[in-house]
TrEMBL record:
Cited Pfam families: NAD_binding_11 (PF14833), NAD_binding_2 (PF03446)
NCBIfam families: ThreonDh
Top-level taxon: Bacteria
Active site location: 195
UniProt protein name: L-threonate dehydrogenase
EC number: 1.1.1.411
Organism: Acetobacter oeni
Family membership: Belongs to the HIBADH-related family. L-threonate dehydrogenase subfamily.
Length: 322
């Protein structure tokens, strides 16, 4: 049975007077990207001692300035922490930071908890759970959704699955980073299945938003007017409302990159393929992201998929309107 556990905290930047609670647990965050940085700051804001590992020195410096404790590598982080959150991009990175050279598993104390937040296949989540169990550790499959802004304000949605012991160990941590926590099963992998369904919709909606805006521009419409009308009409979606402003500003700085949806929609199609289940819309959207990546836009914001439409004059940075 799915359990929805709503949790509420007021958003806001980290400051010395903003701690809502004091907690003696030492929490580690591996990966300080768009989502991981927000998660780490949210944990600091709730009074946890937070360690973090990242390959980028500048990310660690920003984290230290906010009151966090930088770690040289995942192994050094694991030696200091009771719980670690893996905030990397994919299964390969998860494998590396947990089980690779200088991976966290080599130093974590027995009974520690690993919370996996990357979008991965359910089978990979199950395999991580089994390997951690053999090492005397607990695992919570906990993919998240909501974007960088909600990560920064501690208002993510989490889809968690794992043994009751893992859920119990995470009980005082998840409310610090999420507005709503769903418990969707007692076995790792179930949370990842739900995240894959979410990513199917997210990818299709971004591709559809790009197509709609491309058509509006092609037909001579003012893109800002089109955006305002659609966001107040039945055709709106969260992704349309969130991603089209990147197109309007001509700013494709990645918060979630094109290549993320090459990967995530690939996972969607792999999931359907295993049971011969047709996913035609996901397949079409995947082709659009593949084309954008092949054209050199893979590391740009996922809204850059609109650049694949011919014969349109896209807004550029600094443009304020017609």
């Amino acid at each position: 049975m799915v359990r929805k556990i709503p949790v509420r905290f007021a958003p806001g930047p980290v400051s010395s007077g903003d701690f809502r609670m004091s907690n003696n647990k030492k929490i580690g965050v591996i990966g300080l990207g768009a989502m991981g940085a927000g998660v780490a700051l949210s944990l600091l804001r709730r009074g946890f001692t937070v360690h973090a590992a990242d390959t980028r020195r500048e990310a660690l410096d920003r984290f230290a300035e906010a009151g966090g404790v930088p770690a040289a590598d995942p192994a050094a982080l694991g030696a200091e922490c009771d719980v670690i959150l893996v905030q990397v991009v994919n299964a390969a990175q998860t494998e590396q930071v947990l089980f690779g050279e200088k991976g966290a598993v080599s130093t974590l104390k027995p009974g520690s908890l690993v919370i996996g937040c990357a979008t991965v296949s359910p089978e990979f989540a199950e395999s991580v759970d089994a390997r951690l169990h053999n090492a005397g550790l607990f695992f919570l499959d906990a993919p998240m959704s909501g974007g960088a802004a909600k990560a920064a304000s501690g208002e993510m949605t989490l889809m968690t699955s794992g043994a009751p012991e893992a859920q119990a160990l995470a009980a005082d941590i998840l409310p610090a980073i999420a507005g709503t926590v769903y418990r969707v099963g007692d076995r790792a992998g179930t949370g990842s299945k739900i995240k894959i369904v979410n990513q199917l919709l997210a990818g299709v909606h971004i591709a559809a938003a790009a197509e709609a805006m491309a058509l509006a521009i092609r037909e001579g419409g003012d893109p800002r007017t089109a955006y305002e009308i659609i966001t107040n009409s039945a055709g709106n979606s969260w992704m349309f409302e969130n991603r089209v402003p990147h197109i309007l500003s001509g700013d494709y700085t990645p918060l979630s990159a094109v290549d993320i949806f090459v990967k995530d929609l690939g996972l969607v199609l792999d999931t359907g393929g295993r049971t011969k289940f047709p996913l035609p819309l996901a397949a079409a959207a995947h082709q659009q992201f593949l084309a954008a990546s092949a054209a050199g836009f893979g590391r740009e914001d996922d809204s850059a998929v609109i650049k694949m439409f011919p014969g349109i004059d896209l807004p550029h940075a600094g443009q304020t309107g017609r």
